[in-house]
């Protein structure tokens, strides 16, 4: 019976001390008259106040993200780091004041003010407050307010010594600033569950009738090839093939469409140009970019060309892999990627002598060795061990395609000069944007170099003839 009465008495005293600390914390927070004797200092009280602070943080974060809260696993270690920084600062301040008991006093007083601080902080996080223009000012004012309360606590604990209060406040502010700087995004205990996008980005792909699509390809390809015209006698014609091989990113199809139009307008390739594209919006009228279609197209062009006179310009744009394969993708179709050896064999089998092969893809430098030769120009967007940039649905061009065709060949006629200058401008852009160097590659065969210089002169005369205004050197 006596033991029960002792427990009851202790609990009553414990609760009274706890309520006393909470009331004093409110007075402290509202700058009402307050002194050390208003608080009850003990390790039990400090532990209970810290647990209350943790409970309020968890519950208030939960309430703010209803109806679908998602627990943040990283919040507890972040909260623990905050505690560790605070109590380290409190320990050092106790040493500065030369009173170890001062650390306990600071801890109890600060955490007695904690519930009011949490209420005010969560109120400022209310959606209405977040939506108004003065929210940032309120956040700054709240930070100043908390610092002022900490200053008041330290002033009381230090015995109203201003210089000690100032030194202790600086130490406390620095310690409490570390966790938010590095771990602020991990602080909330609950996040709003991300709403699932009910639209399926692959819905159109899932709806494809793959069998019907593949059976329609011969007719679509035959129609596109039928529009190609034979070479013109005593004229060095450029035959262009654009190959946009990755269906789910728009940049590749946009790029070859632009290049085909540019070459027809400025390099006289109309009737001698064709695009093979993997994209949902072109599958009804444009041949797919598959290795089979590419091989058939090259063979057809090889028959239309004068092997000793005309030049092939083959532009391939897609993703590339570290093992030097060009990705050919139109999910859910199972298509074969293209290797350097396979590509070289296709062109050889087509009987095409003069070749300009330009590849915009990561790691595309791995194609150079297999493709280079006396009658071949090979240009790639990256070295064999480097990535290139500019892929994505939102992009209009890859960095390489933009530099070569939009910036250079849109205003000059020399392919070699355009590629050389494009490589320089890409390097400068990557430095500006703090990207790793892609290191585009260029290999010009000994025999094709004079061939392309003569072609440059022919194209310059053509461009002078079609120009609406007089161009330099025309």
CATH topology of the largest domain: Rossmann fold
Mean pLDDT: 86
Helix content: 40-55%
CATH class designation of the largest domain:
Alpha Beta
Count of separate structural domains = 2
End-to-end separation: 114 Å
Beta-strand percentage range: 5-15%
Describe the global form. elongated
Largest sheet descriptor:
6 strands, mixed
Largest sheet, spatial ordering of strands: 4-3-5-6-7-8
Second-tier CATH architecture of the largest domain: 3-Layer(aba) Sandwich
What ranges have pLDDT less than 50 throughout 5 or more consecutive residues? none
What's the Cα radius of gyration? 36 Å
Number of helices: 16
- N-to-C order of helices and strands: HHEHHHHHEHHEHEHEHEHEHHEH
Would you report the number of β strands? 8
SS content category: alpha/beta
């Amino acid at each position: 019976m006596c033991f029960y009465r002792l427990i009851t008495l202790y609990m009553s005293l414990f609760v009274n001390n706890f309520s006393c600390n909470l009331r004093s914390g409110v007075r402290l927070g509202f700058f009402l008259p307050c002194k050390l004797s208003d608080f009850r200092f003990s390790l039990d009280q400090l532990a209970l106040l810290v647990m209350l602070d943790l409970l309020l943080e968890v519950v208030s974060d939960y309430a703010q993200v209803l109806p679908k809260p998602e627990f943040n696993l990283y919040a507890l270690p972040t909260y623990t780091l905050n505690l560790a920084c605070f109590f380290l600062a409190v320990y050092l301040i106790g040493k500065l004041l030369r009173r170890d008991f001062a650390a306990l006093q600071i801890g109890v007083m600060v955490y007695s003010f904690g519930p009011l601080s949490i209420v005010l902080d969560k109120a400022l996080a209310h959606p209405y407050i977040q939506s108004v223009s003065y929210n940032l000012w309120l956040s700054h004012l709240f930070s100043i307010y908390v610092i002022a309360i900490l200053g008041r606590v330290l002033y009381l604990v230090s015995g109203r010594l201003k210089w000690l209060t100032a030194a202790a406040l600086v130490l406390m502010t620095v310690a409490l600033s570390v966790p938010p700087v590095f771990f602020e995004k991990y602080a909330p205990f609950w996040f709003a569950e991300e709403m699932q996008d009910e639209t399926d980005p692959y819905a159109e792909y899932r709806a494809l009738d793959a069998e019907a699509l593949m059976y329609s390809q011969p007719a679509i390809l035959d129609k596109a090839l039928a529009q190609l015209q034979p070479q013109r006698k005593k004229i060095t014609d450029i035959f262009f093939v654009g190959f946009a091989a990755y269906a789910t990113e728009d940049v590749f199809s946009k790029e070859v469409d632009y290049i085909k139009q540019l070459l027809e307008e400025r390099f006289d390739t109309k009737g001698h140009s064709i695009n093979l594209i993997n994209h949902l919006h072109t599958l009804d009228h444009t041949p797919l970019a598959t290795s089979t279609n590419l091989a058939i197209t090259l063979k057809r062009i090889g028959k239309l060309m004068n092997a000793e006179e005309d030049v092939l310009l083959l532009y391939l744009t897609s993703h590339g892999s570290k093992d030097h394969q060009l990705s050919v993708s139109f999910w859910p179709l199972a298509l074969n990627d293209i290797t350097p050896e396979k590509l070289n064999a296709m062109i050889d089998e087509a009987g095409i002598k003069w070749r300009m092969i330009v590849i915009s893809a990561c790691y595309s430098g791995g194609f150079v060795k297999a493709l280079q030769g006396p009658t071949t120009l090979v240009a790639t967007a990256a070295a064999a061990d480097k990535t290139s940039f500019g892929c994505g649905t939102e992009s209009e061009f890859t960095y390489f395609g933009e530099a070569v065709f939009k910036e250079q060949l849109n205003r000059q006629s020399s392919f070699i000069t355009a590629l050389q200058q494009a490589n320089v401008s890409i390097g400068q852009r990557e430095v500006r944007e703090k990207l790793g160097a892609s290191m585009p590659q260029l290999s010009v065969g000994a025999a094709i170099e004079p061939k392309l210089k003569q072609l440059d002169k022919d194209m310059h005369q053509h461009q002078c003839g079609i120009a609406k205004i007089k161009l330099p050197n025309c």
